[in-house]
Design a protein that fits this description.
Elements: E1 7-12, E2 18-22, H1 25-35, H2 40-67, E3 72-78, E4 81-86, H3 92-126, H4 141-163, H5 171-183, H6 186-211, H7 225-232
Parallel strand pairs: 2-3
Antiparallel strand pairs: 1-2, 3-4
Length: 237
């Protein structure tokens, strides 16, 4: 995952949070442009929806910070995803909501987009008799919108599941560590979290070969084996 911290563009986002764009995001755009299906509109829509979904995911983290009185320094979007940087540390209980809100936002977006897409498809096929040529149904504005909403739902559903995988630095890895802190002393919690993450990090290598045929952009993220090994030995994440 090619994370960068040097912004090339900045704007003021919701809640007054500074949102910065990293230069590596252009590599991601170039990648999708090169590997796209040839349908420029579809590729542009996919990239736009992906970045919007990541942005809203990070704003979920930011909102959870602000409602608990934890100031946010910035939200950063880059080629490998994004992160929400706090201006000060948060307690373990505060971090639980902060970390969880990212996937929660994606799940809400998945549910709303899925419902809207299904409703539109029902409307499209209910009016099928109005078309003399049945093939024209799929090219109608309603059908195209339903298709795009379905794509948006799939992107957010995938992001929610992907981010809940229990490896660092994904939200799932952080939530696992926070859960273990509720159940065991810090040393034990860190060791258990590191051990689980280490096994999954090793399995990730053959996993990305399988993912290659399903979604190449997964190759941009590989969990750190040294980081999880250090946690297994009891060192902080």
């Amino acid at each position: 995952m090619f994370q960068d911290t040097n912004p090339v563009f900045e704007f003021r986002g919701p809640f007054g949070v500074p949102v910065q764009i990293g230069g590596s995001i252009f590599f991601l755009l170039a990648f999708f442009a090169y590997t796209g299906s040839g349908d420029i509109a579809w590729t542009a829509a996919f990239v736009g929806m992906l970045m919007a979904s990541i942005f809203l995911h990070e704003m979920g983290h930011a909102w959870a910070c602000l409602v608990q009185g934890v100031p946010v320094r910035r939200v950063m979007l880059y080629g490998g995803g994004g992160f929400c940087e706090r201006a000060r540390s948060a307690t373990a209980h505060q971090q639980e909501l902060i970390v969880a809100m990212g996937p929660i936002v994606n799940l809400v977006l998945w549910a709303l987009a899925s419902l809207a897409s299904d409703a539109l498809w029902d409307s499209v096929f209910a009016n099928a008799s109005a078309y003399t040529d049945p093939t024209l149904i799929l090219s109608s504005p309603q059908a195209r919108l339903a298709e795009y909403l379905g794509l948006f739902a799939h992107i957010n559903g995938f992001l929610a599941i992907f981010n809940l995988l229990p490896v660092q630095p994904l939200d799932g890895g952080k939530l696992l560590h926070l859960l273990m802190l509720r159940l065991a002393p810090q040393q034990v919690a860190t060791t258990v979290t590191g051990g689980i993450g280490l096994v999954l990090s090793i399995l990730w290598i053959p996993g990305i070969l399988i993912a290659f045929g399903m979604g190449w952009w997964l190759l941009f993220f590989i969990p750190s084996i040294p980081q999880h090994f250090a946690m297994l030995r009891g060192r902080p994440a």
